Amino acid sequence: MSHSLQLFAPPLPPPLSSTRQTPLHTTPHLSLLPRRSPHLQFSLRASSDPSVIVSDSNGVAMSPSSGTSDLSSIEGDAVTEAELRENGFRSTRRTKIVCTIGPATCGFSELEALAVGGMNVARINMCHGTREWHKEVIDRVRRLNHEKGFAVAIMMDTEGSEIHMGDLGGASSAKAEDGEVWTFSVRAFNSTLPEHTINVNYDGFAEDVRVGDELVVDGGMVRFEVIEKIGPDVKCLCTDPGLLLPRANLTFWRNGSLVRERNAMLPTISSKDWLDIDFGIAEGVDFIAISFVKSAEVIKHLKSYIAARSRDSDISVIAKIESTDSLKNLEEIIQASDGAMVARGDLGAQIPLEQVPAAQQRIVQLCRQMNKPVIVASQLLESMIEYPTPTRAEVADVSEAVRQRADALMLSGESAMGQYPEKALTVLRSVSLRIEKWWREEKRYEAMILPSVGNSFAEKISEEICISAAKMANNLEVDALFVYTKTGHMASLLSRCRPDCPIFAFTTTTSLRRRLNLQWGLIPFRLSFSDDMESNLNKTFSLLKARNLIKSGDLVIAVSDMFQSIQVMNVP
Ligand SMILES: Nc1ncnc2c1ncn2[C@@H]1O[C@H](COP(=O)(O)OP(=O)(O)O)[C@@H](O)[C@H]1O
Ligand SMILES: C=C(OP(=O)(O)O)C(=O)O
Ligand SMILES: [K+]
Ligand SMILES: [Mg+2]
């Protein structure tokens, strides 16, 4: 208890240095140091001044949070903190939750209920609603974070230019019956839509389809057969009845294959998407998710656009894997992105449904290996749009995503327009907790090979440090891993190892803290820290102890991206 094992190397060379350093400068070495007593260096002010950290009984931080740079304070996720205090480290949820915000959840109190229920990221889907509507949601989430101490990140999801229906002239849905003839038209209708008529957003639609093609709505919710083409109108016979929803996705099939005509040439990012992206940058969203990504080029292009436009270029780009093209170019796309989403809704409309589970497994695994956060999305709890309990099959599906150790699960219609958003969130939370616990108890350590992802020798050292620290944490059964990170890189490398204990990630900015909230097992805090690890640790211990988040005797392993070391110690 009075010693710490310290594996240390001198400070990192500048990150861009690509030349291999001499061993003298980079080889970590091992030493056993007498541990200086941290509390001796600690200024009592930070832990004794109640104005610095105040929490209510729900663990919601009440001191001003976002944007403040009070050197003596620490900002953490209020809900996770309450969970930590209540259940201890081991049972804190590791799998993160993204909730799509729609009419059912856009109000301040509904958003607050989701935040209290564990929403880590709020997603706004630019397919629906106006920019003004989305701006109000963003403002409310920001206010919630600021006033109530949450760290909910915002993800903006683009519409993309794939083919979809219009908005049904204001109706919330329309029923298509077997044998009915419906007109799919590219004409602009000024006011009301004629009966049994559907608007299509893509001008080339009437030319691309052929008589005899099968028209599939939302991956099979409704099916039609094209029976006649009259100028801009395409007459279709309903062959599989069902509910048509506004802006539902359309695909057409010929002889059992998805037709990729000129629609395959549509840009991934449409001109409307670029305007939405400008809006997202101006509003300072944390993530931009790109629909129907086909290649890595579009991601690289967007990333350089963001870098040129946004002050700190601190928006992460998430590639949505939802087309056959994206599966073909999967590795390059993930490599170019800051994360990926298994968008099973549209993916299941482009590949046979029975191939979706294997695709999901492959995407989740690849993302983990390439150290990119991955979200499993769509229909996780679809029946909960209408009913207060999930089906057993849905619970099994959620469990499988957690067992695959995806970073995050996403609610779509369940939270956007369902009747039971909070209940759906509770199901995701409780299933995640249970499966994670089962995994730890059973010690089902997967033999996942984590290939080196670093480009420089210094980056490879960071990886090795994180892999070793995570392994030590499991073997020594430590209570928590601490990581001090200015870029988030070391935190994500630790998360990639999926250790048994939670990872407390200390970062210097609120925006990075929000973005780290998408990654498995990370409990991000904002904290001002220096290059002096000893004083960082002292400060952190005092602040966290004052908040009842850790206690004397807890065993902690600390790593940092400023000073490459692994320290093992008991909290003094
Ligand atoms: N901003 C919004 N305004 C109105 N309805 C929305 C909004 N966002 C989502 N929805 C509703 O929630 C449903 C599920 O959301 P999502 O899965 O994101 O979209 P989609 O069904 O278009 O893929 C949508 O079909 C739509 O009915
Ligand atoms: C998440 C998805 O995308 P969207 O909801 O935008 O269609 C999906 O297709 O599964
Ligand atoms: K979308
Ligand atoms: Mg989609």
Per CATH, the superfamily of the largest domain is Phosphoenolpyruvate-binding domains
Mean pLDDT: 85
| Strand fraction | 15-25%
Question: How many separate helices?
Answer: 19
Bound small molecules, by name, code or SMILES, are: adenosine-5'-diphosphate, phosphoenolpyruvate, potassium ion, magnesium ion
Largest sheet: 8 strands, mixed
- Report the structural category: alpha/beta
Report low-confidence residues grouped into runs of 5 or more. Answer: 1-69
- Cα end-to-end separation: 9 Å
| General shape | elongated
CATH architecture of the largest domain: Alpha-Beta Barrel
The CATH topology of the largest domain is TIM Barrel
Query: Any idea what the radius of gyration is?
Result: 25 Å
Count of extended strands: 25
Oligomer: single chain
Key attributes of the depicted protein:
alpha/beta; Pyruvate Kinase, Chain: A, domain 1; TIM Barrel; M1 Pyruvate Kinase, Domain 3; eight-stranded parallel β-barrel; 19 helices; 34% helix; 21% strand; disordered N terminus; binds adenosine-5'-diphosphate; binds phosphoenolpyruvate; binds potassium ion
Can you characterise this structure?
This protein is an alpha/beta fold and 572 residues long. It has three domains: 3-90 and 451-496 and 502-570, Pyruvate Kinase, Chain: A, domain 1 (3-Layer(aba) Sandwich); 95-160 and 269-438, Phosphoenolpyruvate-binding domains (TIM Barrel, Alpha-Beta Barrel); 168-265, PK beta-barrel domain-like (M1 Pyruvate Kinase, Domain 3, Beta Barrel), CATH 2.40.33. 34% of the residues lie in helices and 21% in strands. The strands form four sheets. It has an eight-stranded mixed β-sheet with strand order 2-1-25-24-21-22-23-3, sandwiched between helices. Strands 4-5-6-16-17-18-19-20 form an eight-stranded parallel barrel, surrounded by eight helices. Strands 9-8-12-11-10-14-15 form a seven-stranded mixed β-sheet, with no helix packed on it. Strand 4 (96-100), helix 4 and strand 5 (121-125) form a beta-alpha-beta unit. Helix 8 packs parallel to helix 10 and helix 13 crosses helix 15. The protein is elongated. It starts with a strand and ends with a strand. Bound molecules: adenosine-5'-diphosphate, phosphoenolpyruvate (PEP), potassium ion and magnesium ion. Phosphoenolpyruvate binds next to helix 11. Magnesium ion (MG) binds at residues 291, 322, 343, 345-346.
